[in-house]
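Model it.
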Amino acid sequence: MTASNGRAATIETAVRHVLPNGMTALLQRNPSSPTVTVRGEVRVGAVNEPAAQNGLAVFTGAALIRGT
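Modeled.
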């Protein structure tokens, strides 16, 4: 990768942080870019929901897509 000043940019390895609520954050610094990018992933779905709460993942996904 080449920075805007023509020098090769060094990208650090991502650092893993586990927050008190269980969420995992991966942080990676790129000094050659003056921007911040945020990406989120949630591990939910029919595979992850308890049998007693069948359909909760579909309901939640639909609500997130609609923005409600």
